[in-house]
Amino acid sequence: MSEKCSILFIQKKCIQCHGCEVACKSWRNVEIGVNWRRVNISWHGGYPDIKMVPVMVACLHCAKPACVAACPTGAIEKRAADGVVLVNQEKCIGCKVCLEACPYSVPQFGADGKMQKCDRCFQETDGRCSVPPCVATCPTKALQLVSQDKNVYLSFTYCDQSLEK
Amino acid sequence: MGRWEEKMNFNNRDTHSRVSGLTLDEALNLAKTNGEQVVPTLCAMCGPTSLSCGVYAFVKNDRFIKVAGMQESSNNKGAVCPKGNAAPQWVYSPDRLKYPMKRVGKKGEGKFKRISWDEAVGIIADTLKRQKEKYGPESLAILAPAMRSYNAYLKRFLTVHGSPNYGHSGICALQRAFSFMYTLADWPIAEIDKSDLVIYWGRQPVFSGPALDGPKALLRLKERGGKIIAIKPSVEPDVCKADIWVPIRPGTDAALALAMLYVVINEELIDKEFVENWCFGYEQLKKHIQKYPPQWAEKITGVSAKQICEVARLYSSTQRASIDLGNGVEHAPSANDAIRAVAILIAITGHLDRPGGNVFRSTDSIMPMPRDITLRERYTPEMRDKLVGPEFPKEFQPFIEGFSSAYYRIFDSILTEDPYPVRTVIAPGTQPVVSTRGSRRIIEALQKLDFYVVIDVTRTADMDYADIVIPTTTPYESDHPFEATGGRVMVRNKVIEPLGDYKSIYQFFLDLGVKMGYGKDFWNGSIEKAMDDQLQPFGMNFADLKNNPTGIIYDSLTRAYENYEKMFQRKSPRLSGAPFLPHGKIEIYNTSFEEAGFNPLPEWREPPESLTGTPDLSEKYPLILSDYHTSKNYTASWERNVPYLREIEPYPVIHIHPDTAAEREIKENDWVIVESLHGWMKVKAKLYPGIRPDTVMILHGWWQGCKEMGLEDFPLLDGGANVNMMYSVDPKKAFDPIITAMTSQTLVEVRKFS
User: Is the predicted pLDDT of residue B3 greater than 50, yes or no?
Assistant: First the structure.
C-alpha cells in the first residue's frame, strides 16, 4: 500500500520558536550554514497597524518541480511512489541552476557544493510514512503530516486559509 | 541517519489530534532500529528547573546525539524547542570546562592552572573558614542564577554558614510576587483557558518556554475567538496573534496602569460590592488617582489616551478577562507601583479569583511537595539585620524565597564598603558582568573582591576574575536530582558519563559542606541521602523513583473560586509571621508600605533617563533603549556558543524602525554604534517595522563567541554588545525604592559605524 504524505505548514499555529529548524538539523546532522527548513518572517502593514507573519521555507516536493525541469544533469527526480523530490548526490554538479529555478529559494549548498534539501525523512519507497522530527517536535502542531489527497501543493504561506476551519 | 520506526507510521489521517513527540515504546523501538540507546530524562537548556521538559535522549557509541520530546511528559507533551533540540552541541562545546582551575595570573588576565576537585574544594573551604572567623559569616554571598533546581542547595549552604546574603537578581519574578502579595495576598495567575480576553502585559508567552503550555494556551484562546491584547514596545510572535497591540514606551507601565485605574474609577466600571466587602482604602485611591488621567499618561507612555480608554473599558466590561503580567514590568524604578496598580485594577473590576480572571495560585494536583531543604527554620533576626543589600526592605524579609540581598548591591558593597564589604562571592551558573546592570562597576568590584568562585559548565564572561573555577556536569551527565512540579515527579537520568574531572553542582555543595565541617547538615556528602530526604513526603526513596523512567503523574485537582476569606488572612513569610494584609482586605491603601516609610498609594516615577523625565538629555540622545529579556534561541546570557542556535541569530542586532534608521542613513545589517550616557555598543542594525519609532531594543546577554562558526567573543564593556553597561545604576534613581527592580531603560543615539 502506498500512501503519499506531505508536511503541511499551518501558519496561524506557528509561534516562530524555530524548534522544527533545529530538530531537522540535529536529527539529520545538517552542517552549519545549511538549512533544510527555515522559519522566516514577513511584515504586513505599517506601524502601528502591523503584523509579523511567519513564513516556512522548506522543500514543498512540488507536483511539477521547477528544479527537476531545470537540472542539467537530471540529478533531481520526483519519485513516483511517494512524491518525494530527491537529489542524486552523484549526479549533482553544484551548478545552482535549481536555486534559480525554485520559486522559494529552497536549494541549499554546503561544503561539498552539492544541492541538499528536505527529503521529508523518507528513506523507503514502500509507502511507509513516518513522522519527521520537524513535525514531531512542533509544540503547537503548526507542522503536520497529512495525506496528499487532502492537500499538498498550495503555497505554504497561506495554506492555512484553505485548510483550517 | 536511519528512518523513523514503523510504529510511528502515519496511519491515522486525523493528524490534528496527534500529539507531539514519542512515547517510551516508540523511542525504544526507534533507538533499536538505529543501533542507539535511549535515556528518558529532562531537558536542561533553560538551566535545570523543576519545569524542565521531558525528553528522550539518544546515545550512539556513548555519544549523546539527539533528543525527541517525551509524549508522556505533562508539561511539554512531547514538544521540544530549538534549545532542547540543540542540547548535544552544548554538551560537547569546546567552551566546556573540563577540570577545576586555580587562577595563577592577575585578575582578569585569564591564566589558570589545573587542580584537583578535592584541592579546589579545600581552597574554598579554607578561605571561607578564615573569613568567617575574621569578618563574620555574612562576608559570604552566593549569587542566585535564574530559577534553578539547585537553588535550595545554595540557600542551605548560606544558612548553615550563617549568611543571609543570597543574591537574587532584583529584576525577575520575585518583584511581581512581592507587589502582588502585599496587595492581594497572592500572585494570581491568568486563567487563560476560561478567559474571553487576555492582556499579555510586558509578557513573552512564546519564548518563555515555547514547548510548555504558554503558547498553546495563547492559540487555544485565539481559536475559540477570545480577544488578545499585547502591551509591549515591539512586535513579537504573541503580538501577531493579538487583536490589539499597545506599543508602550519601555519603563512606563506604571503610568499606563494608573491611567487605566483613572478610567475605571471615574467611569465607575468597578465591582462595587467587591470593593465594599474586600478592599481597604478605595476612597483614598479615588482621590489620589485624579492626578493620572489618560491624557497625562499619553505623554509619558506614548500610548494614545483613546487607546488607554479603549483597553481599560474593554477589560473592565469583559466579565471573563485576565491580565498576564510579565517580566517586562519588573525593570523600572516605578515597578512596584506598576504591579500593584495592576493588582488593584484586577481586584476592583471584579476579576480576582473568578472564572477566567486572575485566580489564586492553588495546589493543582494531589502530588505532595518535596521537603524544603533551605533550613529556613534556622533564620534569626540577627541574620536579617546582616543583609548587605536587601532586595526588599528588612521589614519585609524574608520573602517567599527566603532572605535575599539584591545581586547588584552585593557587588556595590564591595566598592562602597557600605554597610560592609562582602569578601567572597560564589557565582554558580550566573555571570555578573552580563547578568546584572552596571557592568562597569561589577568589573571594578571583581577586581577588588577578595575571593571569587565561578561554578559553571562552560566558560563564563567574568571567569577570568575567578580565584577558583569549578566545572560541573551538565544535567545530561549526572543521575540526579529529581524534579517535582505541576503534578509530575521525575528523576533526571544520566545520558552519558561525565566528559571531564568534575561532579554535579549538587555534589559540589555537599562536598564543600563536608569540608567546612557542616557534614551533618549535608547528608555527610551523600546525594542519595539528600534525595531520599527530599522525597520523604512522597512515601518513596530515590531508588524507587528511578524505577519510573518517565516519572509519576499525579491526578489534578479542580479549583474553587472566590476564596477571599481564607486567602486574605494568609500569613507572610516575615519572621513575625504577620499576615500580608493587615486588614484582611486588599491593600489598595497600603499601610504596611506606609509604616515602612513608603507611599501607601501607587504613583508615577520617571526612569533615570527618559524622553519626558529628562528632556534636555533627549536632544543628544533622542531614542529610548531597552532590552529583550527572553529569546527564542538562547537562555539568558548562555548558549551563544551553540552553533545550531547561533545560526538563527548570529549577531547582536538592534531593532530599529525603518524610518528611524533612514533618518540616520542606516541600512539593514549595517554595523552601528549605540551610545548612552553610560557606554556604547557596536551591533548590527535590524530594520524592524514592528517597533516604536522612538525606541530601539536589543537582546541582553551578548558576550560569548562561537568557535565552530569562527565568531569571537565581544568586549564586555564599550564596543561590545552587553546592554547592561548602557543603563544608569544611580542608587537614587535607577532602583525601585521597595523591590529593587533596576531600570533597563535609557536614552541613546544610534549612528552608523565607520
Answer: no
Minimal Cα–Cα distance from A84 to chain B, Å? 14
Number of domains in chain B: 4
Identify whether B176 is part of a domain.
no
Q: What is the dihedral of CA B451, B455, B458, B462, to 10 degrees?
A: -30
Q: Containing domain of residue B699, as a range? A: 617-752
Report yes or no on B600 lying in a domain. Answer: no
- CB-based contact A5 B80, cutoff 8 Å: no
* CB proximity A35 to B under 8 Å: yes
Give the other-Cβ count within 10 Å of B367's Cβ: 21
Q: Do B690 and A43 touch (CB under 8 A)?
A: yes
Domain shared by B257 and B348, yes or no: yes
The single-letter code of the amino acid at B263 is V
The answer to whether the CB atoms of A128 and B9 lie below 8 A apart is: yes
pLDDT tens, position by position, A50-101:
999 999 999 999 989 999 999 999 999 998 887 889 999 999 999 999 999 9
Q: What is the pTM of this model?
A: 0.95
Note whether A48 contacts B: Cβ–Cβ < 8 A. Answer: yes
How far is Cα B154 from Cα B131, in angstroms, rounded to an integer? 18
Structural domain includes residue B181: no
Q: Name the nearest CA neighbour of A70 among A114, A34, A48, A103.
A: A103
Chain B contact set for A47 (CB, 8 A): 247, 657, 689-693
pLDDT at A4 over 80: no
Is B3 an 8 Å CB contact of chain A?
A: yes
Residue B375 shares a structural domain with residue B471: yes
Shortest Cα distance from B448 to chain A (angstroms)? Answer: 42
Claim to verify: residue B325 and residue B455 sit in the same structural domain: no
Residues 6+ apart with CB under 8 A from B601: B281, B284, B285, B288, B588, B589, B590
State yes or no: pLDDT of A122 exceeds 90. no
What are the tens digits of pLDDT across the range B127-171? 999 999 999 999 999 999 888 999 999 999 999 999 999 999 999
Judging contacts by C-beta atoms under 8 Å, the chain B residues touching residue A29 are 1
Q: Collect all residues of chain B within an 8 Å Cβ-Cβ radius of residue A53.
A: 240
Reported as a pLDDT band with limits 50, 70 and 90, residue B9 is very low
Q: Return the CATH number at B30.
A: 2.20.25.90
Residues B740 and B685 in one domain: yes
**Buried b or exposed e, range B111-134, using 16+ CB within 10 angstroms:** ebeebebeebbebbbebbeebbee
Residue window 73-132, chain B: list those with CB within 8 Å of chain A. 76, 78-86, 88
Least Cα separation, residue B631 to chain A (angstroms): 9
